[in-house]
């Protein structure tokens, strides 16, 4: 087909696959490949999600350029095989099951959901994401990856979150259970407090314990931000502030407060603890530290938490934040699937 060099070309699926395979072999990322093909052949030929899907196929060794229809997958999950694996060992993670069955983790999560399974009492549980939520995660990962030319800005990142912390921490494992088959709850002391924590690559900046019945309102959150700003003052020339999309965090009042402080405002998508260092790194380590421990009162708990934060090396905090680009790239390349480790 002869065309002028400036005439846009509408590519077939097979042609798109061939061009993407060339880009894949050349070492391009899915995002770079989509941008380059659209620049050369005309806009709209390849979107970034489609490119990420093809790259995922190539990584699995699938070089079939007759692409399956949009929304379809190379092969369906054998639910009988999946069910047999789960019944044999319900403590297997969805990431392990995905690697064993040769599917993406997102596909396995959906299959488990369809079979009526959910993960009970694990250290962290992926939410079964809708197609829209997957797209939003891909878009946000692409945004963060292209936010600056280098990742040096992460040295100026401040992030934080809240988590309920128990006085008595029973040691219990997690497993996959069908809906309605709940794990019996332990009888005992249910007293807890709310841990609010903010940090950067250098370590903790500010943290506090609030009564468990405390509601973090937009006004309380703004007061906490004021305290945080006082502790940062004179130590950081620029602040990139990352938090989740909980209502008090993204309210107009909180947004205005962050602008007033002169900070760059960044929000992770809904149901995305794998994109929040406080969730996937810091609180996860705190939970492991508290596992099996019992505290008589708040002062006892606070002393132990302070001891934990103090004895963690600075590299612990830096590594937690510097994992972000790897996670963003994985989420972008895998159609928004959770990054689980």
From TrEMBL:
It holds the Pfam family HTH_48. GO terms for biological process: DNA double-strand break processing; DNA integration; double-strand break repair via nonhomologous end joining; mitotic DNA integrity checkpoint signaling; replication fork processing. Coiled coil: none annotated. One of its GO terms (molecular function) is double-stranded DNA binding. Signal peptide: none annotated. One of its GO terms (cellular component) is nucleus. InterPro entries: Mos1_HTH (IPR041426), RNaseH_sf (IPR036397), Transposase-MT_Hybrid (IPR052709), Transposase_1 (IPR001888). Residues 20-62 form the Mos1 transposase HTH domain. PANTHER family: HISTONE-LYSINE N-METHYLTRANSFERASE SETMAR, MARINER MOS1 TRANSPOSASE-LIKE PROTEIN. This is HTH_48 domain-containing protein.
């Amino acid at each position: 087909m002869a065309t002028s060099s400036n005439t846009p070309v509408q590519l077939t699926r097979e042609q798109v696959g061939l061009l993407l395979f060339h880009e894949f072999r050349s070492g391009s990322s899915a995002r770079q490949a989509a941008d380059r093909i659209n620049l050369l052949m005309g806009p709209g030929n390849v979107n970034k999600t489609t490119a990420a899907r093809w790259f995922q196929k190539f990584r699995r060794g699938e070089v079939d350029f007759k692409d399956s229809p949009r929304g379809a997958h190379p092969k369906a999950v054998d639910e009988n095989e999946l069910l047999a694996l789960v019944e044999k060992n319900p403590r297997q993670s969805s990431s392990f099951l995905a690697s064993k069955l040769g599917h993406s983790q997102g596909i396995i999560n959906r299959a488990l959901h369809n079979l009526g399974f959910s993960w009970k009492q694990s250290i962290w549980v992926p939410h079964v994401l809708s197609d829209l939520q997957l797209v939003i995660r891909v878009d946000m990962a692409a945004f963060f990856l292209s936010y600056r030319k280098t990742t040096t800005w992460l040295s100026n990142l401040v992030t934080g979150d809240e988590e309920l912390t128990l006085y008595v921490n029973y040691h219990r494992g997690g497993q996959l259970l069908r809906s309605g088959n709940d794990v019996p709850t332990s009888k005992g002391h249910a007293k807890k407090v709310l841990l609010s924590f903010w940090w950067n690559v250098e370590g903790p900046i500010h943290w506090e314990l609030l009564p468990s019945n405390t509601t973090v309102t937009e006004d309380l959150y703004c007061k906490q931000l004021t305290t945080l700003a006082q502790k940062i003052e004179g130590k950081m020339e620029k602040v990139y502030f990352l938090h989740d999309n909980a209502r008090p965090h993204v309210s107009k009042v909180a947004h205005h407060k962050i602008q007033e402080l002169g900070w760059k405002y960044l929000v992770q998508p809904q149901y995305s603890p794998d994109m929040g260092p406080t969730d996937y790194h810091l609180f996860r380590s705190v939970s492991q530290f508290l596992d099996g421990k019992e505290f008589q009162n708040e002062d006892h708990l606070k002393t132990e938490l302070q001891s934990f934060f103090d004895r963690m090396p600075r590299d612990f905090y830096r590594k937690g934040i510097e994992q972000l680009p790897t996670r963003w790239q994985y989420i972008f390349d895998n159609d928004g699937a959770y990054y689980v480790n």
